[in-house]
Amino acid sequence: MAMKMRQSLAELEQEFRHEMQLESSRSQLLWKHANSRTRKRRRERNRKRSSMRFWLLVMTLIATAVAVTIAMFETLYYLLG
After folding, report:
1. HSE-CB for 47 with a 13 A CA cutoff
2. Where are the alpha helices (DSSP H) in 1-81?
3. Using CA atoms, how far apart are residues 29 and 42, in angstroms rounded to an integer?
4. DSSP 75
5. Digitized pLDDT (tens) for each residue of the chain, 81 residues in all
6. What is the DSSP letter of 1?
């Protein structure tokens, strides 16, 4: 009976170590996935922000060109008229 008890305790300890290793590997895998998702979201956020800044710059340049053109023609009108 004592031999069976030792054997079952050894098996329990071995199973416990095995479960701990599995849990450790699962934990590392979850951490890697979470880290990957975080990097992906950060890249996407930066891409959206960059796109918005680009279009804001384009609109500002167009508005400046229109304003300068209007001012130039009005000044020309006043000088010649």
Report:
1. 6
2. 2-80
3. 20
4. H
5. 556 666 788 888 999 999 999 999 999 999 999 999 999 999 999 999 999 999 999 999 999 999 999 999 999 999 998
6. -
